[in-house]
Amino acid sequence: MKPGASQVMFGDRVDAGRVLAERLWEYAGLHDVLVLGLPRGGVPVAAEVAERLSAPLGICLVRKLGVPGHAEFAMGAIASGGVVEVDEALVRKLHIALPAVLNVVRTERAELERREFVYRGDRAPERVTGKTVIVVDDGMATGATMRAVVSSLRGQSPARIVVAVPVASRQACEDMQRHADACICLACPEPFRAVGLFYANFAPTSDSEVIGCLSRMQLRHESGAAHARRESIDGASG
């Protein structure tokens, strides 16, 4: 069935981020909040959330493990820190041989390492220990990639993990409630076929767009921090 106009909820990822930020307003201005976007498509959404909450923006690198021959269908995911999540029941059901699974893992790990270099360069990963981490993507279909992210972050002892997405399948949202400390989702439409059907513009996000969002928000955050320091010094000397 072709997507109808009634399925479109957001103009593009920037629009979705602005709407999502309104649901996250309780975290605005808090000093311990960190927003992490999932490259590529989650970063433009996360940038809008971070800007409106006055929070720093970072990334959490993750790669979906696609079923061989059907790459859009997830059988698991890998994330930074060596986290590998595989849906073993699905692998058995589809009779996917172990060598085929390992080949997909190797391929996706190489792409994850490439993105790590391109997006971070020589910068260290964001420190999440003791922080409220808001993890943002442009949507969740199965939730496999987000589960890998949450597993990766848990090992770094954040105070709280909040998963936030504009749209998701009901099953993914319910599952994420069990993994994250909170799951904020604007809509869980049924039937749910693909994240892109709910956007008027779901063009692929490029590496340059990701880098641009990160650079813009880093400058904005550094400028805000410098302004706060000046106010503190002026107040102390006044």
Per-chain topology:
Elements: H1 13-23, E1 33-37, H2 42-53, E2 57-59, E3 62-67, E4 70-79, E5 83-86, H3 88-93, H4 98-120, E6 132-136, H5 144-154, E7 160-167, H6 170-179, E8 182-187, H7 207-237
Parallel strand pairs: 1-2, 1-6, 6-7, 7-8
Antiparallel strand pairs: 3-4, 4-5
Helix pairs in contact: 1-2, 2-7
Overall description:
It contains seven helices and eight strands. By secondary structure, the protein is α/β, with parallel strands linked by helices. α1 (13-23) crosses α2 (42-53) and α2 (42-53) packs parallel to α7 (207-237). The radius of gyration is 18 Å and the shape is globular. The N and C termini lie far apart (68 Å).
Low-confidence stretches at least 5 residues in length (pLDDT < 50)?
Answer: 1-5
Question: How many distinct helices?
Answer: 7
Rg over CA atoms? 18 Å
Query: What distance separates the N and C termini?
Result: 68 Å
- Major sheet description: 5 strands, parallel
- Summed over residues and divided by their number, the pLDDT gives a mean of 89
Strand order of the largest sheet: 2-1-6-7-8
Topology, number of strands: 8
Estimate the strand proportion: 15-25%
Described by the principal axes of the CA atoms, the overall outline is: globular
Topology pattern, helix = H, strand = E: HEHEEEEHHEHEHEH
Oligomeric state of the chains?
Answer: single chain
- Which architecture name of the domain at 5-61 and 129-237 does CATH use? 3-Layer(aba) Sandwich
The CATH topology of the domain at 5-61 and 129-237, please? Rossmann fold
Structural class: alpha/beta
Q: Give the proportion of residues in helices.
A: 40-55%
The CATH class assignment of the domain at 5-61 and 129-237 is Alpha Beta
